[in-house]
Automatic annotation (TrEMBL):
PANTHER family: ALPHA-1,2 MANNOSYLTRANSFERASE KTR1
Protein name: Putative KRE2-alpha-1,2-mannosyltransferase
Active site: 236
One example of a Gene Ontology biological process annotation: cell wall mannoprotein biosynthetic process
InterPro entries: Glyco_trans_15, Nucleotide-diphossugar_trans
Keywords recorded for this protein, A-Z: Glycosyltransferase, Transferase
């Protein structure tokens, strides 16, 4: 009764050959990492954490993408940290350059202005290409096309808790499309016209908006002005088929036409989040409370004591971002169908 069926449909009793006890079904999934050669050292820690906390027992592939060719050192360096398949890809030039309708002089001016104001990455041109790429293109890279689900990993992140199940299969089995750990507020100066542009898009495409979507997360008042809440996209476990869908591509193209990736500094986090909250049913979005996570400067640490007493986490519950003024986790849970987790670790 406890036999396991492997990918070929063969049946193995778990005790037959020990390794075959873990040949259970996998999702079509992998880790997607956009990175630069010089980030190798910071990336090593991220890969080590993901492998140690989860993937060494599951063997999902790693896909590394870069607007420049990866160096020999980079490739050798990451290969040493995993037994999984590793892919290295370069971003096509058309996905990391100015579309013809963007006025580059106007864009340069905008960067200078935002730089003077001291906004993070305000004067950075490459950061804008990166945000536009993460918003509109990573899910169409040829090396990702065989995948349904992805987990975004960045250099310098930490995972604080053992993950004793397969989050990709969790997504698949529960019809989840977008998963996050940290939700926060955006600097409005980086996205001053993102909401009005979105509103115009909705007006023209009302059929893209399901009734039971998660727009409660985006508004604090009846006026339906975006509160800048967004899911922090440096961690995402998501369904690539959503980003490849017509409704999302139409939205991305509409935003891209408006030029805000360059004239302002629209981030992929607000763009992904607004799309997920508007176009998905709210129960398709999931908060991975059990995934303790740090990306500088914020940490999400599961607060339930059992996670810590069982020895599975190494974070400090008093240091979780969730209770910070800037957190939007309360905005998520006040309207979500999923309940604030009370999960007890066996
Ligand atoms: P932050 O998290 O907003 O501070 O921005 P990061 O510097 O971490 O960039 C976000 C992600 O994009 C990370 O995975 C970076 O490695 C990657 N990234 C940022 N800029 C570039 C770039 O110019 N080229 C490449 N290949 N990756 C980049
Ligand atoms: Mn980062």
């Amino acid at each position: 009764a406890n036999a396991t069926r492997n990918a070929d449909g063969n049946l193995y009793p778990p005790s037959y050959v020990p390794q075959q006890a873990n040949v259970a079904k996998r999702a079509k999934a992998g880790f997607i990492v956009l990175a630069r050669n010089r980030e190798l050292e910071d990336l090593k820690g991220s890969i080590r954490d993901v492998e140690y906390r989860f993937n060494h027992k599951y063997g999902y592939p790693w896909i590394f993408l870069n607007d420049q060719p990866f160096s020999k050192e980079f490739k050798a360096g990451v290969r040493k940290l995993t037994r999984s398949e590793v892919r290295f890809g370069q971003v096509p030039h058309e996905h990391w350059s100015y579309p013809p309708y963007v006025d580059q002089v106007k864009a340069a001016k905008a960067r200078k202005e935002m730089g003077k104001k001291g906004m993070p990455y305000g004067d950075s041109e490459s950061y804008r290409h990166m945000c536009r790429y993460q918003s509109g293109f990573f899910f169409r890279h040829p090396l990702t096309l065989d995948l349904d689900y992805y987990w975004r990993v960045e250099p310098g992140i930490k995972l604080h808790c053992d993950i004793d199940y397969d989050p990709f299969l969790f997504m698949q089995l529960n019809n989840k499309t977008y998963g996050f750990t940290i939700a926060g507020r955006e600097f409005i100066d980086t996205v001053p016209t993102l909401w009005e542009t979105t509103r115009d898009f909705i007006t023209q495409h009302p059929f893209y908006i399901p009734k039971s979507n998660a727009d409660h997360f985006l508004f604090d008042t009846e006026q339906r002005i975006w509160n800048t809440c967004h899911f922090w996209s440096n961690f995402e476990i998501g369904d690539l088929r959503f980003w490849r869908s017509q409704r999302y591509l139409d939205y991305f193209n509409y935003l891209d036409r408006a030029g805000g990736f360059f004239y302002e500094r629209w981030g992929d986090a607000p763009v992904h989040s607004i799309a997920a909250a508007l176009f998905l049913e709210k129960d398709q979005i999931h908060h991975f409370d059990d995934i303790g996570y740090t990306h500088h400067p914020w940490t999400h640490c599961p607060k339930h004591q059992d996670y810590h007493n069982s020895g599975r986490c190494d974070c400090d519950t008093s240091n979780t971002f969730d209770r910070h003024d800037f957190s939007c986790l309360a905005e998520w849970y006040r309207g979500a169908t999923e309940k604030v987790p009370t999960h007890v670790v066996p």
